[in-house]
């Protein structure tokens, strides 16, 4: 009887672990940009919202940001450029359903796309 209980417990545990890890992907990191209406040094300002639409923490979020530049400074604690990649919030965890916001000024706007992240615990 104890062996059956251990096997059922192991199956339940593995099912929960598998469900938590497979329920999130880069598709759950949504990025939206809207024009603020302001201009900085003659360039339109864009407000960016990054949302973790997942029940799991995601950290070390990398975005493709080839050629990214801005006429207004973006805090490196929010977005730090490393070559053609940008690291979001210094790689710190973005909680489930949390957002990160920043603004930049450039024309044309940049298409920021998540390229990688590390999944953490799920709620």
Describe the structure.
- With 123 residues, this protein is of the alpha+beta class.
- Helices cover 17% and strands 46% of the residues.
- It is built from one helix and seven strands, in the order αβββββββ.
- The protein has one helix at 2-22; strands spanning 29-40, 43-52, 56-64, 79-82, 85-88, 99-105, 113-122.
- A four-stranded antiparallel sheet has the order 4-5-3-7, with no helix packed on it.
End-to-end Cα distance: 32 Å
Helix and strand pattern: HEEEEEEE
Contiguous low-pLDDT stretches (5 residues minimum) are 3-21
Query: Largest sheet, order of strands side by side?
Result: 4-5-3-7
Strand content: over 45%
Whole-number average pLDDT?
A: 86
Shape: elongated
Structural class call reads: alpha+beta
Number of helices, counting only DSSP H or I runs of 4 residues or more: 1
Rg calculated over all Cα atoms: 19 Å
The major β-sheet equals: 4 strands, antiparallel
Helix % is 10-25%
Count the E strands: 7
Keywords: Signal
Signal peptide: 1-22
InterPro entries: TPD1
Pfam family, one: TPD1_C
